[in-house]
Amino acid sequence: QIQGMPYGNCLLVSDGPIHNSTGIPFFYVTPKDKTVADLLKNPVASLTLPEVDGNFCRKNVVDPEDLRCTRLTLTGQMVTVAPEEVEFAKQAMFSRHPVIRKWPRNYEWFFLKMNIEHIWLQNWYGEVSTITVEE
């Protein structure tokens, strides 16, 4: 009913093992998920991350989804992780989200990553700054 329309979903994400963050978002997914099936047809996606651990929200005990808290939005192409990078993706996801080790094996899990093309930092009620991918 919403074919061709964008929609959001919550997926576990990791940018590397705890002491080896890369800034590249990795995902452990199944093609049985409609979101993933859509991404395999049209890989353009966006990812918004709230300021969970930032100074303002933590100091003032403010809900991370409060408009005063900073949000980072990444947009780009979702691609299947290349074989030479699978071990790193596995360490990244499994070290930060150990529960996925217990997920059913028959779901054809595989790794995706986002090739980031644009970065927006939104701070305080809509003020947006563009950040280069190199930064």
TrEMBL record:
The keyword Zinc does not apply. GO terms for cellular component: cytoplasm; endomembrane system; extracellular space. It is found in: Secreted. InterPro entries: CREG_beta-barrel, Split_barrel_FMN-bd. This is CREG2 protein. Residues 2-135 form the CREG-like beta-barrel domain. Keywords: Glycoprotein, Secreted, Signal. Gene3D superfamilies: Electron Transport, Fmn-binding Protein, Chain A (2.30.110.10). Belongs to the CREG family. It comes from Nothoprocta ornata.
